Amino acid sequence: MIGIDKLGCYVPKTVLPLTTLAQARGVDSNKYTQGIGQREMAMVSHNEDVVTMACEAAHTILDDHDKASIDMVLFATETGIDYSKAASIYALDLLGLPSNTRAIELKQACYASTGAMFLAMDYVRSHPTKKVLVLSSDIAWYGFENSGEVTQGAGAIAMLISMNPRLGSINEGLKAVRNEKDFYRPIFSKVPLVDGKLSIGLYQDMLKEVEDHQSRRYTCFHLPFANMANKANRMLTYPMDEAHLNIVKELGSVVGNIYNGSLYLSLISVLLHAKEDLKDETIGMFAYGSGAMAEFFTITLNENYQEGINKTSLNQLLEGRQALSMDDYIELMQHYELKEYASDIDLSHYVKPYQTFVHESTTHGHRNYKKVK
Ligand code: HMG
Asked: Pick from 4, 205, 11, 195: which is nearest to 118 by CA?
């Protein structure tokens, strides 16, 4: 058996309530909270980026024994910070992982995390004593005042892939790829170019193409916004009832789109909020990445699946989050754009008490990170 040994997550502590955004944009707030289904979206603070978020997620699950057995770090992101150097090199250094480790970055919109997970499984199959750390970290930023603005978010997932996994084993299903223009970010653009309606239609078509027509209590989805779960559920041969559907999308509705990590955030939502004992449960998983790539697979949870997650740290994630005003949000995201493209910047004075890792400065385009506790 090969699968997810441990699963960790990080979401920023600052959030924009969707009622605040609706008021500022002159939109009926029911459109955002009921139509889109989003209550809040997580926004990165001044010295967070994809590397610090990935390290925060990994830090909550890795012990010294895990670190010593990691042979490869795969970093899935569509929020790359460098065209050449992999974000995994920065992460490996910050996490104190062994130096005889492969470190690579992967990209295919929101699908790269799932692609990386399957590559990791093949690697473990041929190196059974080794583990692979798959990191997924993204900042979904569409810019101000456009229809994508309500579907933003930020966060990271860390998965340790191994033989005899504690959380659950992964079962391969069907996959499909098409060359499409629904959502892409050419190198000249700071934000994605999006045809929202086309993207929703493609997502639904490709789900229909790859789903496995089995009845299950839970199917988790890639969730660009919470109510995409309702649209996806309707495409299944055996849709979930409303109570189970609400559990699948609960975390997404207060975090937003975290791109590569979004499907796994939906899984964490089930692990945290399910009323049933999930031992031996098989959960459907639908991955979608624009452009477009889709895959339907399942995870069968083990008897001791609770050992594969750190419930305390997951519950702490959503405690004490700070609601941003519209002015705070504008300042924060203007700062984000400035610092992402700055060749030199000092961010050392922004450290917050809850942070373990910070992007301290950039010098001549090189990011300097620090573990602060
Ligand atoms: P929009 O045009 O602003 O919204 O775009 P709308 O007019 O379609 O309305 C949204 C919903 O609110 C509708 O419900 C309305 O009826 C309802 P639906 O028909 O869908 O069930 N509504 C109301 N409800 C209550 N009270 C009201 C009210 N008014 C309207 N007063 C869209 C929405 C999601 C398209 C836009 O935000 C967008 O383009 N987002 C970015 C793209 C996206 O998220 N696509 C999703 C699929 S693609 C994907 O998942 C990949 C992705 O993650 C990228 C990657 O792979 O890297 C995005």
From this structure: 4
